[in-house]
């Protein structure tokens, strides 16, 4: 490999192939994530009321709400995460940042991989208009593609981040997606090439103020970093934490680790936690109606999403909670949650754990619709198929038994509904089980196995011989 990579090659390497495993993910993903009646009567969040947490190492006073710059608005509404031709709407980005900044948000999280490689530049433009010491920039070494595993390429990626962000230092720098691809890949990306030692040196030189990592996947990698804490002195760690993952991450998927375990290990060592996925990619804002009713009985004026954000912000070891906010109504709702934070009571926490148990018992596929598995080389629309299946479970309309009085209606709804949202040639029966998608999934879903199960389920529905209860 050449020791130096130009900008074009760099962007290609972080936005193609395995880069879709980019994983510091959080918050709302589409406009109606968490959208309910609360937005129609939304009040203005107050200024000067933001809750802050203090970083024990650098004494940074960090806003509890952190702005995730990975779902930025685009011109024409194209997906900035999927469409390579999407152009970010800098004017709208500036407007959102201005509003967040005015309400006390001072932590902005980006990556070379976000928004097809455009996020860092857009973030730098938006923040450059403010005094540098008035905000904290977090970005990542997103060396997912094997082309960028070398020491030289990783160092060049780091320096490119400084250039794109228009800064001479980074407040919070992360090893990105630790554990994705397994322990051996983790070692190749960060250990064997000596890049951790290099970044420790950059911290000593003051060009990195806080050094940490984001974790997904292989727990052995997390353990290794914890065991080497005395050597590297991690200043923070980014983990997935929400009221479903607290006890059920591993139960939902054997390859995940419960947030209770991760948070507990960080607390033992006094390492602050930065939280991603407080809404599980929107899943905790789109729960079944009967569960929504339970929340509305408690707080009729609050959005469903607000409960997840209050949960994520309540633990004292949490430094900031990230949300990828594309729309102003989501930004305002999250500000209302943290300006100031109303910590959960023990009774409210118990209620949320009860709701988590009910969500777990629904046995939905743990897909966050992040689309990191896409594109499928054979054209299957993986997340759309999973979302349709989960939607039917959440609505209580999944056809389960041919003897049920609602079976014919639910069967028709499932098959016709699937054809409406997913083209025939992109449905589960077109999956060949190649496994190309598996290493890219932050939730470690065994996608070919799930596709095979959905394909068999569809075939039974088409034949009309679903003779036994379906295991959801």
Mean pLDDT across all amino acids = 88
Please tell me how large the radius of gyration is. Answer: 22 Å
The rough form would be described as globular
Structural class: alpha/beta
Number of strands: 10
Order of helices and strands: HHEEEHEHEHEHHEHHEHHEHHEHHHHH
**What is the spatial order of strands in the main beta sheet?**
3-4-5-6-7-8-9-10
Can you walk me through this structure?
- The protein starts with 6 loop residues before the first helix and ends in a 9-residue tail after the last helix.
- It is of the alpha/beta class.
- The strands form two sheets. It has an eight-stranded parallel beta barrel with strand order 3-4-5-6-7-8-9-10, surrounded by five helices.
- It has helices at residues 7-15, 37-40, 90-102, 119-127, 151-164, 183-191, 195-205, 219-227, 229-232, 245-252, 259-269, 289-298, 304-313, 328-338, 346-362, 382-395, 407-421, 447-463; strands at 52-54, 61-63, 65-68, 107-109, 136-141, 170-178, 208-215, 236-240, 273-276, 318-323.
- It is 41% helix and 11% strand.
- The longest helix is centred in the last third of the chain and has 17 residues, at 346-362.
Produce the secondary structure layout.
Elements: H1 7-15, H2 37-40, E1 52-54, E2 61-63, E3 65-68, H3 90-102, E4 107-109, H4 119-127, E5 136-141, H5 151-164, E6 170-178, H6 183-191, H7 195-205, E7 208-215, H8 219-227, H9 229-232, E8 236-240, H10 245-252, H11 259-269, E9 273-276, H12 289-298, H13 304-313, E10 318-323, H14 328-338, H15 346-362, H16 382-395, H17 407-421, H18 447-463
Parallel strand pairs: 3-4, 3-10, 4-5, 5-6, 6-7, 7-8, 8-9, 9-10
Antiparallel strand pairs: 1-2
Helix pairs in contact: 3-4, 13-14, 16-17
